[in-house]
Each structure stands twice: as C-alpha cells, then as structure tokens.
Predict the structure of YegS/Rv2252/BmrU family lipid kinase.
Amino acid sequence: MRCVLVINPAAGGGLTAKVVGELVDHLRAVCEVRTVMATSAAGTEAAVRRAVADEADVLAVVGGDGIANLAVQACAESETALALIPAGTGNDLSRGLGIPREPVAAAEVMAEAIECGSRRRVDLGKVAGAGWFSTVLCAGLDAAINARANRLRWPRGQRRYDLATVLELIGLRQMPLRVETEGRLLDTRATLVAVGNTPYYGGGIPVCPQADPGDGAFDLTIVGEVTRRELLRVLPTVRTGRHLEHPAVTTLRAKSVRLGGDNGWLAFADGEPQARLPLTIRNTPGALEVVAPV
C-alpha cells in the first residue's frame, strides 16, 4: 500500500516535531509512506495532484479545511483514497466524517482503517465552471462572515468567526434570492443560503444538521427576512441545529440547485471563494473515496 503524506507544518498554529514524528510513525506501521512538507498553497496543490497522478493508493493530508479542499480537488473521481488528519481551525470535513479532532488520534484511526481496508465513497458538490466542494456552499451573511474571518489575523480559532459575525451584523441587509431546484422555484428576500453536502461549516456550526454525504442530495437552509435583533436570538440556536425550527428558516432537499437573484452575493464553499451568483451546483454521488474510521 503506497501512501503520500502531505503536511502543512503551520496548521493549528504550528505542529511540533514530536507530533509530526508520531503521525508519520502511525502510517509507516501499515504502509509505505512518502512525506511532503508543504509550506505554500501552490506547493500543497502540486503535491496532492502529483500524488494522484502517480496513482498513490492513499493521499493523507495534515492540516485544516484549506488543505482538505485542495486534496478533494485532486482526488475527486480518481482511484486515490483521501485520508484526513485534522490539525487546522475549522476541520469541518473531518468532523462531518466522524474523524477524531486531535491529529495524533486521527492518524492512529486512519492507520487502522488503512490496514483494515476500511473505505467509503461520499458525494461531492460541483460548481458549474468551477471546482468541487465537500462540505457547505454558502452565500449571503454567512459567506460575508467567512470572508471577514479570512481577513482577520486575530483572534484565532472559533473566536475569529464570532468576531467576524458581530462585524458583519452591523451592516446586515436582506437581498433578493432565487432558488431553483428540480422540484421547486423559490423567490424570496433572504439573509443567507447554505447548500450542505455535510452538516458543518465555520468550525463546527451545523447549518445543515441533517445533511448526509452519502445520500445523493444536498440539504438547503435558507434564512429569510429577519431583523438584526431577531437574528441575534436565532444565532445561538444554530450551534444545536434548532435554528431549523424558526419560522424565517426554509429547508429544501435537491440534487441540483441554481442560486440567483439581484444580490451580488459571492459564494463560498469549503471556506474558499467560488463565484458571484447566479451559479449552478450539482451533487455527484460517490465522487470521492475516503479512508473511513473503522
């Protein structure tokens, strides 16, 4: 079994040599490992694409959602299985797949799964004219928060998203939104829309709590017109999934979605900017093979 291990050493504020050594040791106990230390986005992208081009059996990546997204682009519709070892800020894909959040524990679980041949095919979203996404595509307030959080250098972790939320709420505006699915056309004024392949975004927020990456469909969460005060009351319930009970929230399921409307919104997916609306998204069942916890 050939495994390429790509590590972002700056992930999580910086991985120690001891942690890196333990990650490598766990994987080397069950397969042949080639290790790549990636110090830039370009270097990471080149490394993951080379691993797939060289037909590695497993591509293991250590870092956050950024490196996970690059690995998804490389592994989608290929024969190389993706093994995630979370060590970043959000870790939303690994969370959605039930992988331990601590990197050494995750490496141990991934090594056990590789040894046992435990794999799983999961769905991916595809943005027309752009790339793949594995977690959530969002537009509106949540995308603005994501963009703001990416610009902030302090604080770290979840508090960065919390601060970005407060700053974006100051300029809160509802905008026209059109949602077209294979079964419905919805024209409304909205605060945000989230298209979920998995439940989480923003470092563990279950915006689409019932989303399942193995069911061949997206879960959509649409927040309509709400005042700033009402939204402040709703936001704490998002962390428990109870926001779906609010009358301003509409949920849909769809295999393909077109998002439009005169809003100028920029969509984000897996925490990465995609394109401004309108855009079309389709669900591709089983597009990615992942190493799955036993």
Observations:
- The longest strand covers residues 279-291.
